[in-house]
Automatic annotation (TrEMBL):
<feature type="binding site">
    <location>
        <position position="103"/>
    </location>
    <ligand>
        <name>a divalent metal cation</name>
    </ligand>
</feature>
<dbReference type="GO" id="GO:0005737">
    <property type="term" value="C:cytoplasm"/>
</dbReference>
<dbReference type="InterPro" id="IPR002678">
    <property type="entry name" value="DUF34/NIF3"/>
</dbReference>
<dbReference type="Pfam" id="PF01784">
    <property type="entry name" value="DUF34_NIF3"/>
</dbReference>
<feature type="binding site">
    <location>
        <position position="65"/>
    </location>
    <ligand>
        <name>a divalent metal cation</name>
    </ligand>
</feature>
<dbReference type="InterPro" id="IPR036069">
    <property type="entry name" value="DUF34/NIF3_sf"/>
</dbReference>
<protein>
    <recommendedName>
        <fullName>GTP cyclohydrolase 1 type 2 homolog</fullName>
    </recommendedName>
</protein>
<feature type="binding site">
    <location>
        <position position="66"/>
    </location>
    <ligand>
        <name>a divalent metal cation</name>
    </ligand>
</feature>
<keyword id="KW-0479">Metal-binding</keyword>
<feature type="binding site">
    <location>
        <position position="220"/>
    </location>
    <ligand>
        <name>a divalent metal cation</name>
    </ligand>
</feature>
<comment type="similarity">
    <text>Belongs to the GTP cyclohydrolase I type 2/NIF3 family.</text>
</comment>
<dbReference type="GO" id="GO:0046872">
    <property type="term" value="F:metal ion binding"/>
</dbReference>
<feature type="binding site">
    <location>
        <position position="224"/>
    </location>
    <ligand>
        <name>a divalent metal cation</name>
    </ligand>
</feature>
Amino acid sequence: MAVALQTLVAEAERYLASAKIHDYCPNGLQVEGRAQVRRIVSGVTASQALLDAAVEADADLILVHHGYFWKGENPCITGMKRRRLSTLLSHDISLLAFHLPLDVHPEVGNNVQLARLLDITVEGPLDPTDARVVGLLGSLPEPLSPRDFARRVHEALGREPLLVEGEQMIRRVGWCTGGGQGYIDQAIAAGVDLFISGEASEQTFHSARENGISFIAAGHHATERYGVQALGDYLARRFAVEHLFIDCPNPV
């Protein structure tokens, strides 16, 4: 079956409530392709590798978490950007991108999906006083040592995480996928035993060590593979179209 592109885009925007979220890039349809969608290819980032794979898979629409046109970037269509846009336009493929709306959604969001994968019970926002903080707070069904939890992350994500090991058992957990390491201060204030993010900054080590908590950096790409898959599956069910997730490996 096929669905009109604009119908699919409108439903994705409604479902994610994307118009209500202030972001660093345009959310929604970033590049317009053919009018009908039969096959969606999803991936984390609209890299050239994903675009080429989507062309090979005969996609009508590419759905991603990391799209184009970020605030502050050079707006000129040259080099890498020209090649990417040329691929989309020459094959009449649409690009649909959702950044923060796909981090915060309570069903298909990256943070909720990571919690399900790691068996963390979501208890609420990491910082209920600040809606700009997109991380979550939760707990484990039973306490684990930092190394045991790091092994769980490794098994679930297929990538060995960076671990700053604290002394206490892990019960309460705060997390923010992707580049959310800067929220470690909110996690410490919330009284967690462990904070998880995708990336780490130099000062993250010192914050964790000096405040007596554990910290795991599990990979920006690795922690954000699951929201876009869940959204793609939702749209495929909603409109009876095909959906294929393509993972283009990224060690960061």
